[in-house]
């Protein structure tokens, strides 16, 4: 890789996928002058999903780590980066906007990434991977962008498309994101640092996904089986997970699959129609049944005939009443 001598590149991340990308950059000979991350205490305070400490990789490659005073960064951090006088920052897995004052301290700007099933500017905002699973979409267009003070509105440096299959979960989508980001960065870092790369402005009317909260993971058993399946695989580990209730006991559901539309039961949605010695159990749905294969609950065991809470929270951000919030192909 023919990056100009003395080029200073900063890498900002605090997540497992971000860690994997950084390992690849090091393996391919990209020199990083500083890593920016957050402490475990800050990650816990901000409930950062997929958090990973970068201490080990920093020590392995003898690269200093800078910890901002706050996750959102302040004037103190602007001063730090101005003094650092670096050429490029790569941000990957930083769940806060980078202040414009920080962006301006880098000669070639700051690279981030975002995407949606429709490609930018559609699907800006929160959790586009989770939303793509919830909306049962079959592709994702991920872009490396040069960050500006707006929300995912920067000029596009590169884009990769990958499929979303019916077997994907949020974890497997992050694997696809990792591979895609690695590929794009290895193509564009050199021309960006040489000043020869062309960025393309986003074109079209933007749409935005809303923030998801842990309570949005409650299952509505009157939904079709496929919709329930999509919710569970979209919010499973490392996210807070889908859940339901039985007589006040919360059951976290980490894995659920459609069971059968042919094996019919004359039971209302949400009733457990079979419980197996393995701990798996089958729940009735309006169009068939769903098999729960991984779950957690305190002092609770599934039994045939139990009725799970059916309706969930009507204010759930992806409920039918809130559908107008979501990106669609007509947007």
Structural features, described:
This protein is α/β, with parallel strands linked by helices. The chain folds into two domains: 9-209, Formyl transferase, N-terminal domain (Rossmann fold, 3-Layer(aba) Sandwich); 219-312, Methionyl-tRNA Fmet Formyltransferase, Chain A, domain 2 (Roll). Helices cover 24% and strands 23% of the residues. It is built from eight helices and 14 strands. The chain has helices spanning 16-27, 40-45, 55-60, 75-84, 100-103, 128-134, 170-194, 225-235, and strands at residues 9-12, 34-36, 65-66, 88-91, 110-116, 124-125, 139-146, 155-163, 208-209, 242-246, 249-260, 272-275, 281-285, 288-296. The strands form three sheets. It has a seven-stranded mixed beta sheet. It has a five-stranded antiparallel beta sheet with strand order 10-11-14-13-12. The chain has a two-stranded parallel sheet with strand order 6-9. Helix 1 packs across helix 7 and helix 6 packs antiparallel against helix 8 (225-235). One of its GO terms (molecular function) is methionyl-tRNA formyltransferase activity. This is Methionyl-tRNA formyltransferase. Residues 311-331 are annotated as: Disordered.
The CATH fourth-level homologous superfamily of the largest domain: Formyl transferase, N-terminal domain
The SSE string, one letter per element, is: EHEHHEHEHEEHEEHEHEEEEE
**What would the CATH topology of the largest domain be?**
Rossmann fold
The proportion of strand residues reads 15-25%
**Which structural class matches the secondary elements?**
alpha/beta
Our measurement of the CA-to-CA distance between the termini, rounded to an integer number of angstroms, reads 40 Å
Q: How are the strands of the biggest sheet laid out side by side?
A: 3-2-1-4-5-7-8
Largest sheet: 7 strands, mixed
How many discrete domains? 2
Assign the CATH architecture of the largest domain.
3-Layer(aba) Sandwich
- Secondary structure tally: strands: 14
Task: Provide the helix percentage.
Answer: 10-25%
Unreliable residue stretches: none
Radius of gyration from CA coordinates: 22 Å
Shape verdict: elongated
Domain Formyl transferase N-terminal: 78-186
Domain Formyl transferase C-terminal: 213-295
GO molecular function, one term: methionyl-tRNA formyltransferase activity
Organism: Natronocalculus amylovorans
């Amino acid at each position: 890789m023919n990056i100009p001598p003395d080029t200073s590149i900063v890498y900002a991340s605090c997540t497992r996928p971000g860690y994997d990308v950084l390992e690849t950059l090091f393996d391919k000979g990209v020199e990083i002058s500083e890593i920016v991350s957050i402490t475990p205490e800050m990650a816990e305070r901000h409930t950062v999903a997929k958090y990973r400490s970068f201490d080990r990789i920093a020590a392995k490659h003898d690269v200093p780590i800078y910890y901002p005073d706050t996750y959102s960064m302040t004037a103190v951090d602007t001063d730090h980066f101005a003094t650092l006088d670096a050429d490029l920052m790569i941000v990957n897995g930083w769940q806060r906007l980078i202040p414009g004052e920080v962006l301006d301290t880098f000669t070639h700007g700051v690279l981030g990434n975002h995407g949606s099933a429709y490609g930018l500017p559609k699907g800006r905002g929160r959790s586009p991977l989770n939303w793509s699973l919830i909306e049962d979409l079959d592709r994702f267009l991920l872009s490396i962008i040069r960050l500006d003070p707006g929300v995912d509105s920067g000029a596009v440096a590169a884009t990769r498309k990958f499929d979303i299959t019916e077997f994907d979960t949020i974890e497997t989508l992050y694997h696809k994101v990792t591979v895609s980001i690695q590929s794009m960065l290895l193509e564009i870092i050199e021309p960006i640092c040489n000043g020869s790369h062309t960025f393309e402005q986003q074109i079209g009317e933007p749409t935005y996904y809303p923030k998801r909260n842990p309570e949005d993971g409650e299952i509505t058993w009157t939904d079709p089986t496929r919709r329930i399946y999509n919710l569970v695989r979209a919010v499973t580990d490392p996210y807070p997970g889908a859940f339901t209730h039985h007589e006040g006991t919360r059951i976290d559901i980490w894995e659920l699959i459609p069971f059968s539309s042919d094996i019919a039961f004359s039971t209302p949605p949400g009733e457990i129609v079979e419980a197996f010695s393995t701990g798996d159990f089958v729940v009735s749905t309006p169009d068939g049944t769903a098999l729960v294969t991984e779950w957690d609950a305190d002092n609770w065991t599934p039994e045939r005939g139990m009725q799970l809470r059916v309706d969930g929270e009507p204010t759930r951000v992806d409920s039918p009443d809130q559908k107008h919030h979501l990106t669609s192909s007509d947007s």
